[in-house]
Known about the structure:
The complex is a heterodimer.
Chain A: H1 7-23, H2 35-50, H3 69-81, H4 90-103, H5 106-117, E1 123-126, E2 142-146, E3 151-158, E4 169-175, E5 186-192, E6 198-203, E7 212-223, E8 227-228, H6 234-246, H7 254-268, H8 274-302, H9 311-333, H10 342-350, H11 360-371
Parallel strand pairs in A: 1-4
Antiparallel strand pairs in A: 2-3, 3-7, 4-5, 5-8, 6-7
Helix pairs in contact in A: 1-3, 3-7, 4-5, 4-6, 6-9, 7-8, 7-9, 8-9, 9-10, 9-11
Chain B: H1 7-23, H2 26-31, H3 42-51, H4 69-82, H5 88-102, H6 107-111, E1 117-119, E2 125-126, E3 134-138, E4 143-146, E5 164-165, E6 172-175, H7 178-213, E7 215-216, E8 219-220, H8 225-253, H9 259-285, H10 296-308, H11 312-322
Parallel strand pairs in B: 1-3
Antiparallel strand pairs in B: 2-5, 3-4, 4-6, 7-8
Helix pairs in contact in B: 1-3, 1-4, 4-5, 4-7, 4-8, 5-7, 7-8, 7-9, 7-10, 8-9, 9-10, 9-11
The complex binds flavin-adenine dinucleotide.
The site of flavin-adenine dinucleotide has 18 residues of chain A, from β1 and α11.
Amino acid sequence: MxxxxxxxxxxxxxxxxxxxxxxxxxxxxxxxxTREGFARxxxxxxxxxxxxxxxxxxxxxxxxxxASLWEWLIFEEEYYAAGAxxxxxxxxxxxxxxxxxxxxxxxxxxxxxPRIAAAEDLWCxxxxxxxxxxxxxxxxSRAVRDEAAGGWRLTGQKTWTTRGAFCTHLFxxxxxxxAAQRHRGLTYFLVPLDTPGVTVxxxxxxxxxxxxxxxxxxxVFVSDSAVLGGVNEGWRVAMATTGSExxxxxxxxxxxxxxxxxxVELARSRRLSPRSRDRVVRSWINAQAYQLFTxxxxxxxxxxxxxxxxxxxxxxxxxxxxxxxxxxxxDLLGPAAELDGPWSRGFLFALSGPIYAGTNExxxxxxxxxxxGLPRA
Amino acid sequence: MDFALTEDxxxxxxxxxxLLAAQCPPDVVRAAWPAGEPAALDGLWxxxxxxxxxxxxxxxxxxGLGLDETDLVPLLEEFGYAAVPLPVAETxxxxxxLLAAAGDQRLPAVLSGATRVALAGADRLVPYGxxxxxxxxxxxTQARLVAPEPEPVLPTVDGSRALTRLSDATGELxxxxxxxxxxARHRAELATSxxxxxxxxxxxxxxxxxxxxxxxxxVPIGSFQAVKHHLADALxxxxxxxxxxxxxxxxxxxxxxxxxxxxxxxxxxxxxxxQDVARAAIQCHGAIGYTVEYDLHLYAKRTWALAxxxxxxxxxxxxxxxxxxxxxPA
Lengths: 377, 330
Ligand SMILES: Cc1cc2nc3c(=O)[nH]c(=O)nc-3n(C[C@H](O)[C@H](O)[C@H](O)COP(=O)(O)OP(=O)(O)OC[C@H]3O[C@@H](n4cnc5c(N)ncnc54)[C@H](O)[C@@H]3O)c2cc1C
């Protein structure tokens, strides 16, 4: 057991830290969930890619560094500690790409992965529909076979699509077998948003930013190469993506450690009541605990034990932790908490954590049924 | 970076787990209660001594297994899981390593199990004091070995603890080396937190089994979402605390500068997790969880007893100090 960096890891950390120190914009970029801010974030992503920091754990031929999982965690830690911008490529790099590595054809991988890493293609997720949220298997958007044209015609509506108004591509589930029930008969499609028949309408989230979108598809033609994994195999493929989203890849401990450090810094600048002092200490403890939990999880993974449904434990913990860190900071700020600022914005965003990526109620069901083995209702 | 248990750690833990499953089932824990037959405990004590558990963290030259705190944590979890009603965790984690480091000639008798040493806690309360030959008392600056005062046994929530109180803690000095004393205190805190993790696992296992069998409204109660959510949260609490406890063990073994705060984190997380799991476990059992006839209470009460000695406030103080947080003057 060794909880410090090996010499190679330390060298990797030093290199990342140095590059970030020299490169991270001195003033924070405007929110990536606005049109203008998004464009600025894409420029930053291109800078990351040019220096091969965009997707460190990927093979070098796709723009990565073949970094180990440990090194990836180290990069994340350094990234957030340096106060670097939010990753507007996260859906592509951290959610779609792992699925492409597992289920994509070599042609899909060679075509798409480098464009994802380079922030050429910007992906959004098309799962939810107006009538299908937690009950994702209830989606009705459909894909109809067009044998003559060698492809599929998509029709339906997706919603809550994060940054859909700014992205170039959408991945998501569509019903390909109308006779099949629920989880069966779904297919995972990769859809360029500039295809004729697609209409996107952005709208405001809780913080007012245009971070949400509705995506309307009306007889949108995509070729066979737009299918990821097999036809009617979409559920299995999608679960791989959502596993990444709940688990490690989307929310590594780095961002919470850095939030905890900022919280402690804020707390140091003032005299604390015993109550708020304890709150700060507890929030900080939980951030450290999440890191140790993920280090254990990565060790298990490297020993060949996939986290599987246990990634729902990550999701439950990081989403509550994020709220707790921000609520504690607002508590310290007192009347100033009402003002717009990084903590109040962060708090609003944190509130969505227990909702997106499968609500925490759904995660608890998954933990109970698939980790503890309790009977299904 | 590597936070996996080694093969050796897993093997030793599994051996101890099997031994405890055979030698420390709920009946043996019950035997330690006032109406029980304490002779039933001797076999358990001897078996653990024979296995070498008491000397796990004693150097090989001194007759031990030469392991460290990182190796101990998985064993301590097992002691908690079984609610071992004897000062086994205390001996292996605190007493034996301290006597070894101090070059005390009583070590061999402790390792062989011939001399049973209990560890005094806060307020001079001594768990297992009524069953010990000697009591180790740790103050801020000293470690002393004191004659036990086996009477009276204090009425307590966990009747298996044979709790006594020392009126005279003078005894004999073992060491006043501040390093040895502070390490011993940290190890005692580690032992408590790791046992609490194990207790949490035991209570959760019992509950998962029960709610899968008990039927109401024609279905297993484990299929009700309210029950599921209690238990999913219980698992999360344990799974978050456990790595923090193991990391604290590693920090002690490596003498990391952060070790005191690492241990404090472990205590806070483990004691609160185990207490929350106890509540969820009792709630999900219904009335049967509220009896002394069913086994759950043995583990819940040990949880409360260990948690009572944790002094979470002191650990939060320690952490706040390390984080350099200032409280407003009262
Ligand atoms: C910030 C944000 C970003 C998002 N980004 C995307 C995106 O990019 N792409 C996308 O496809 N979706 C996205 N979503 C949508 C998200 O996946 C859904 O909101 C989520 O799956 C819940 O669905 P719903 O909103 O329809 O709520 P509902 O499913 O209607 O749930 C409402 C409430 O009922 C509870 N509930 C529902 N079913 C159960 C059950 N079986 N057991 C217990 N409780 C239950 C829920 O837990 C919740 O509290 C995003 C959401 C947010 C908030």
